[in-house]
Amino acid sequence: MMPLLTxxxxxxxxxxxxxxDGVDFALMPGEIRAIIGPNGAGKTTFVSLVSGRIxxxxxxxxxxxxxxxxxxxxxxxxxxxxxxxxxxxxxxNLSAYDNVALPVxxxxxxxxxxxxxxxxxxxxxxxxxxxxxxxxxxGQLSYGHQRLLEVAMGLxxxxxxxxxxxxxxxxxxSEIDNFIELVREIADSATVLLIEHNMPVVMxxxxxITVFNAGRILAEGTPEQIRANAAVQDAYLGTTHG
Amino acid sequence: xxxxxxxxPYALHLGVIALLFGLSFVLPEYxxxxxxxxxxLAVFAMGYNLxxxxxxxxxxxxxxxxxxxxxxAGLAVIHLGWSVPAAFAAGLACGALLALVxxxxxxxxxxxxxxxxxxxxxxxxxxxxxxxxxxxxxxQGLVVPQPMRVLVLGSTSFDLxxxxxxxxxxxxxxxIVLLISLxxxxxxxxRVLVAIRENEERTxxxxxxxxxSKLAAVVISxxxxxxxxxxxxLxxxxxxSSFAxxxxxxxxxxxxxxxxxxxTLGPLIGTLFMYYVIDIASGxxxxxxxxxxxxxxxxxxxxxxxxxGSIRQRWLGWLP
Lengths: 242, 320
Ligand SMILES: Nc1ncnc2c1ncn2[C@@H]1O[C@H](COP(=O)(O)OP(=O)(O)OP(=O)(O)O)[C@@H](O)[C@H]1O
Ligand SMILES: [Mg+2]
What we know:
The complex is a heterodimer.
Chain A: E1 5-14, E2 17-27, E3 32-36, H1 43-51, E4 58-63, E5 66-67, H2 73-79, E6 81-84, H3 96-107, H4 114-127, H5 143-156, E7 161-165, H6 173-189, E8 191-195, H7 199-205, E9 208-213, E10 216-221, H8 223-228, H9 230-240
Parallel strand pairs in A: 3-8, 3-9, 6-7, 7-8
Antiparallel strand pairs in A: 1-2, 1-4, 4-5, 9-10
Helix pairs in contact in A: 3-4, 3-5, 4-5
Chain B: H1 7-26, H2 29-54, H3 63-80, H4 84-106, H5 112-131, H6 133-136, E1 142-143, E2 150-153, E3 156-159, H7 163-186, H8 188-198, H9 200-204, H10 210-236, E4 238-239, H11 247-259, H12 266-284, H13 288-302, H14 307-314
Antiparallel strand pairs in B: 1-4, 2-3
Helix pairs in contact in B: 1-7, 2-7, 2-10, 2-11, 2-12, 3-4, 3-10, 4-10, 7-8, 7-10, 8-10, 11-12, 12-13
Bound molecules: adenosine-5'-triphosphate and magnesium ion (MG).
Magnesium ion binds at residues 43-44, 86, 165 of chain A.
């Protein structure tokens, strides 16, 4: 099977700092892949390169067989790469409804009737449990609900690859259980790339795990393999999760 | 919010149009003429508001779009002897084309740089008008001859120098532009424009080509302002370079700020308010600009979002 996403020698420096350093990465369609690693390992930078939010210093990105390295971000979104932000960046002054209506109207190709937009918006809000808050300004939602709204916006893009950057940050435990269910559902129709610090969430969801450290891939494997990997224990699990 | 009650905003806007129509029959001559002028200039303000209020792009050069329409229409009548509809179309086309070119260049910048670039282009436009004085009349301007200002539709002809015809023509243009603005603002495209104002990077990450959306907004905004300019030339018969000066780039900004940026009716209210404050103040004292200044400061202090913007924030959340 051909990978959905491949990167070859992908690098990005900030000044002298090599935030992402020669990363070769492949993601199979239908997979739920977790990316873990200590703070500052380059996880956000890596997925930002994939989504086109920032430009690489060198290297190549291939999505569904096509070289997308020089494609602008909006065009990658249209190809099916959706990115949800680590730092919540919903449109604070717009209602939750309008926040989701934007990606919904973007994906509607068959006549953008108000009815079709409405149906799509309410479906995405219901899946994330935000339907009863549709008319609230997004900035007035609780932090956890803003995280979910981010996910709803990503979902509404009907992506083939959904990139979630620490989506459970700030969610209550009960909300996390719902969230795990939601990601499983999403994975039926999309490939998921999940950056996550919460190890129980990672262990429950991921088919495979990639461990980043200092801009490079330190290890990759199934959850069991990663749990057993000594180098990973030293670099990450050992220090932050004793 | 947006999709909740589509009937209310349309009823309100049609009500305003009906009110303006009714006023034509009761206003004394002086106010009748003033209101016709205000409606034409409110169109200018609406065009400005689309870009400034909804997209969040502050241009200091919109006088060039207004004057593109003004001169496009005026010169077509004066030098080419074109009919009123053809001249209006010429003005509109000049504004649209100019806006396309300026948009392509100026949208490479944003924020303060955008303000400066648009102001520079407008200044160039102003100087060109003075330079080509042989055609434009330079700083004297030109008068559109009265006999040319007749709108012939089929077998009937309307004399645009007649007060009622002029008022109704101004109202027709105002109404069309008002309803177009309302439709744009309530459409999916309007939602994208607001999203760009709020967070352009995020909007791109939802798959929107924000440059194209902004360019379209500049062209629509420029065309509306040009329509206002073209109507001004044809209805009031004067084409002058002062309309291309920097003052006329700042005026629509003031009108919109006063009335309420990003409200569909704010431009009318702001223009109306400013004209009447000046009118009333100048009746009492020759230092009327002082009173205007004080009125502006009080408004900014107590209605920081403009008259309609503050009303929407406090009482009427559904206002578009
Ligand atoms: N725009 C930027 N300019 C300069 N340095 C940056 C920029 N973005 C990231 N960095 C640096 O690059 C390195 C990698 O950052 P990145 O945000 O990718 O890490 P991360 O793995 O996502 O960390 P976290 O787990 O804290 O989210 C860090 O040292 C960070 O300070
Ligand atoms: Mg990060």
